Amino acid sequence: MSQGKAHGDIPAEHDRDETEGGRRIPDLFEPMQLRDLKIRNRVWMPPMDTYSSVRQDGIPTNFHYQHYVSRALGGFGVVISEATAVNPEGRISPCDLGIWNDEQARAWQGIVTDIKSAGAQPFIQLNHSGRKGSSGCASVGYLNATVPTSEGGWQTLAPSPVAFGDMETPAELSKTEIATIVADFRSAAMRAVKAGFEGIEIHAAHGYLLSEFLDPLTNQRLDEYGGGLIGRMRALIQVTDAIRDVIPAGMPLLVRISATDWATGGWGLEETIKTAKVLKLHGVDLIDVSTGGIVPGVTIPAKPDYQVPFSYQIRSQVLIPTTAVGLITKAKQANRIVRKGRADAVEIGRASLRDPYWPLRAAYKLGMDKADIPYPEPYRRGAYGTKR
Fold first, then answer.
1. Quick one: DSSP state of residue 196?
2. How far is CA 12 from CA 6, 270, 321, 341, in A?
3. Helix axes 102-117, 175-195, angle to 10 degrees
4. Nearest in space to 241 (alpha carbons), one of 35, 3, 33
5. Rounded distance between C-alpha atoms, residue 107 and residue 349, angstroms
């Protein structure tokens, strides 16, 4: 169970303009408190896989330094790492990052330090890929397919031996192997704390291992890890407890979850809400709301704000902070989501790949005073609206 200060009350919809020293502060740029952590705004960079550990050792490189620190300089409040594997078999591809050993954790330290120096909060997403592991990446090939062991691939693991599309069938995890993976999440969290990360997100979305345990289409077990919802959420709760037990009481713990898999007979919003209520009791401070990725070949009605209603339902029914993500690209759109109480923070994904300084431009478009926009001081003379 959680110890220490938990998340605060959930604010309702409001339309007032907040001010600081008489200046207008858009809702998107209000500070946000999670446990002991004060975050400068509600524009977050979500986890996005880059598949760029080209040495296949899970160690972040100079590319990752520039990728993450540039977004911190660009004004994001939180920068969440891409899915970072808790053990070698937990990688999505051979080119994924990891934090299953101390060398990897040390390589993260410089990135984390400079994210904080730029004013953002570094969070790490911990993941095990499950049946979607050992897939291809640009430098290896085998895109959307299983990488053979001769090319650096491995035997994938899952709750049940159900393949993802045309990929190789995973091996069913024994209870001993499940306990080992829970311990790997715990150890990874301890390394993340030592590396200086200020928040941890558990990846239980998009059809990776913990998501596979939750979903009845991928979990056909007959033991205590399968069957009804309580059994299917057991692995996620064990991981949550293991991490909450070893991180500081004031450190935020997040869970990313797919609110629906968009498939008949599969995971849906009702089960998500029930699971989020349990996660809250076990010390989770925020639900990062996404959808899909669990089963292939489904039609997802992707359009602007298409996942926001899921965030709102979880937020309002569980009374826990949420983030919204997915085709949120415009400043007024993002600000409206926060202002209307649909989410507590907005994640800007692919738009941030196009524009690392998206928050600075958004703040200007929302009429924020230049003095309040989170420019790095050397960049302030080139602020949006400057005439020369």
1. T
2. 18, 22, 11, 6
3. 40
4. 3
5. 24
Residue type, 350: R
Q: Report d(CA 126, CA 360) in Å as an integer.
A: 28
- Which one is predicted more confidently, 3 or 353? 353
Domain ranges of the chain: 18-382
Q: What is the DSSP string of 35-73?
A: TTEEES-SEEEPP------TTSS----HHHHHHHHHHHH
Q: Report residue 387's pLDDT band, with 50, 70 and 90 as the boundaries.
A: confident
Give per-residue burial for 89-120: e unless 16+ CB within 10 Å, then b.
Answer: bbbbbbbbbbbbbeebbebbeebbebbbebbb
Q: Say if residue 1's pLDDT is above 50.
A: no
Spell out the CATH class of 18-382. Answer: alpha beta
The two three-digit tokens of residue 199, written as one number: 């928040």
Where are the alpha helices (H) located in the chain, listed in sequence order?
A: 62-73, 102-117, 175-195, 209-214, 229-232, 234-246, 269-281, 308-318, 331-339, 350-354, 358-365
User: CA–CA separation, 344 vs 311, rounded Å?
Assistant: 9
Task: Tell me if 198 sits within 8 A of 138, measured CB to CB.
Answer: no
User: Is 68 among the residues known to form the active site?
Assistant: no
- First-residue to last-residue Cα distance in the chain: 56
Can you read off the two tokens belonging to residue 103? 């060398």
Q: Contact, 273 vs 318, CB < 8 A? A: yes
pLDDT tens by residue, 307-359: 999 999 999 999 999 999 999 999 999 999 999 999 999 999 999 999 999 99
- Element (H or E) spanning 217, and its range? none
Write down the catalytic residue from 51, 68, 142, 208: 208
Q: How far apart are CA 127 and CA 266, in angstroms?
A: 22
CA dihedral 46, 237, 343, 333 (to 10 degrees): 30
CA nearest neighbour of 136 among 98, 96, 165:
96
This prediction has a pTM of 0.94
* Helix, strand, coil % in the chain, rounded to nearest 5: 35, 20, 45
Name which of 98, 165, 106, 102 is nearest 135 in CA terms. 165
